[in-house]
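forwarding from the other thread:

> can someone predict this with 5-phosphoarabinonic acid?

sure thing
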Amino acid sequence: MNDSIQVISKFALQGLETQALRDAALAAKQTLESGSGAGNDFLGWLHLPSSIDEQQFQAIEESAAQLLSECEYVISIGIGGSYLGGKAVIEALSNHFAAYRTDGGPKVLFAGSNIGEDYLYDMMDLVRGHKFGIIVISKSGTTTEPAIAFRLFKEMLEQQEGKEFASRNIVAITDARRGALRRLAIEEGYATFVIPDDVGGRFSVLTPVGLLPIAVAGFDIRALIKGAVEMEQGGDEQVLDYAIARNALYQQGKKIEILANFTPRLHFLAEWWKQLYGESEGKDHKGIFPASVDFTTDLHSMGQWIQDGERTIFETVLSVGDQQHEVIIPNDDVDLDGLNYIAGKNVDYVNKMAELGTRLAHIDGGVPNLLITIPAVTERYLGQLIYFFEKACGVSGYILGVNPFDQPGVEAYKKNMFALLEKPGHEEATAAIKARLKQ
Ligand code: PA5
C-alpha cells in the first residue's frame, strides 16, 4: 500500500498542460509561499501543521477529556469554515449508524449550520434530560446561525444542569480579542481556544476549530496533523499537478468540477471541499463551480446528466484503497437474483469495478477525469488530503487571478436578512428593502 495520497491526472492532462500554465502554477506557488499575493494576511494555515506543538495538542486533548468525562452528547455549534472541517473528518471516520459511540464517549452533534426550526427542536428533544456539552465556534463571534443555536442550547444546559456544569462544559473557539463570543466567554468563564487572526474560516480545520470536535469524537488528532505535515513538507508536486489540471480544464471551457466519491463516509469531505474552492475561487465573475456526487448512489440520479449532458464538466474521483471491513457476497444455491457470478467477492471489489467502469464511461462521454487515490480513510490520510486541497486551492486561486482568501460575496444575503429582520443599525436598508418589495 502506498503511504500517501496520490494525484493522478494523466487523463485530464494529456495534451492539456502547457508550458505557460506550468509556469503560471510555479509563479502562483511562489506568490503563495513568499506571501506576496492578495490576501497575504490570511496565510497562517500554510505552515500551521508543522507549527502545532505538544502544548497545543495537550490543551485540546485535556479539553476533550473534560467533555468526555461529563457529557453524553457534545454539540458543536458553527457554520461554514467553523463547521464543515470537523464534520467532514468525524463523518469520514465514524461508524455510519452508531447513535452512541461504541466506546461510551459522547456523540458529537452539529448545530448552528442552518436556521431550521425543526432541526433545532429535534436536537433539543434529543438532548433533553441528558448531560451535554457545547463547543461554540465562531471566528467573528457574531454570525447569526450559530448565535441563535448557542443562545438556545446555553439556556437549556443552564436550566437543565445548572450554571456551574454549563461553564465547565462549554468551550468557546473564537477570535483572540474581538467579538461578542469572546466577551461572553470571558464573562461566563468558559474555556477558550483562539482561531488565529491569519487563518480564515475555510482554512481552519487544523486549528482547534476542527481539532477539538474531532478529539471529542474519539479520533487521533496527532495522526491527522502528522498527515498534514507530510503534505506540507512533501506534497508540492501533487499540488501543482492538481492546480494545473483543473485550470487547464477551466481554460478549455470546463466550468464545473464534480468531486466524486464511491465511499459514503466521504460525503462531508466533499461538502468541506466545496466551501474551500467555491468561497476561494468564485469571485470577479470567475471560478470553477465545485459540485459533488456520491457514487454509485448518484449514478442513478445525476449519472445521466454527467454522461450525456452539457459538456462543461470535469470530474475528480476520490478513490479509496482499503475499506475498514470486509463483507463477502454469499453464494446462493438457487441464484434467482443471478448474482452468483460475484459470489465470494467482497463488496468493495464490486464497488471498485463500478468506479473504474464509471471513470472510463465518463471519459468516453467527454468528461475529463482526475483521480486522487487515498490508501484508506484514516486520520493520517485525511490530514494529507486536507492540506493538499488547501494548498492546491491557494495555488489555483492565484493562477486564476483572484484573492483566494477573502469572501466579500457572503455578506450580500446577510445585509438583506438583517434589513428584513429590522436589526438595529440597519434602518435605512430596512426602508429600502420594504420599498423594493412593495414594487
Ligand atoms: O470561510 C469562512 O470565512 C466562512 O465560511 C466562515 O467560516 C463562516 O461564515 C462562519 O464565520 P464565523 O466563524 O465568523 O462565525
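Residues 48-224 form a domain with the Rossmann fold fold (CATH 3.40.50.10490). thats all i got for now
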